[in-house]
Amino acid sequence: MRRVVVMIVAGLVLALPTLAKAGSTKVAVVDLQQVIAKSKQGKEAMAKLKKMYEQKKAEVDKKKAEIQRMREELAKKSSLLSEKAKKAKEDEYREALRDLQHLIDDSKSDLRLKENEMKQQLLKQAINVVQKMAKEKGYGLVIDMSGGVVYADKSINISESVLKRFDKGVK
Question: Which three-class secondary structure state does DSSP give residue 8?
Fold first, then answer.
């Protein structure tokens, strides 16, 4: 599948000079990843993700501190405890470690999911802006640079225009 996409993009890139010279089809490129990363909405989304990360990190750090206290307590008191009590404390400690690992895994998963949701939403909005601009400015073809374009003349790059329009909220 990836090979097919690369071949299609390569074919389009090779056809760009012909299309551009034909005069009937205006061609432009846009770096949607750059537009999203530099846009107000993209920066707000990253700030939300960072805040969510900090909250998850605080939870994990709190759990780690609890486990550290449990381990220290077990080390100090293990010689004083009966075998049954010692085994119970060790089991409790191991369970806390498993809980910590689950918390870490769940946190990573939640963050990845939220990041993907935000990126998809922003990408959809950016594509809407590109489509509107393409129609307004008469572009017959707009290619996303992050999708495999090897070369594009700066004169056909509309990323900055899309970024300005995206930040204005025009959809």
Answer: helix
The DSSP line for 75-109 is HHHTTTS-HHHHHHHHHHHHHHHHHHHHHHHHHHH
Residue with the two structure tokens 């949607």: 32
- The secondary element (H helix, E strand) that includes residue 124 is helix 83-137
The class level of CATH for 2-168 reads: alpha beta
Give per-residue pLDDT as tens, 103-144: 999 999 999 999 999 999 999 999 999 988 988 888 888 889
- How many of the other CB atoms lie within 10 Å of CB of 42? 22
Is the pLDDT at 157 greater than 60, yes or no? yes
Cβ-Cβ contacts under 8 Å for 95 (sequence gap 6 or more): none
Distance in angstroms between the alpha carbons of the first and the last residue of the chain: 31
Helices 40-77 and 159-168: crossing angle in degrees, nearest 10, is 80
Is this model's pTM higher than 0.85 or not?
A: no
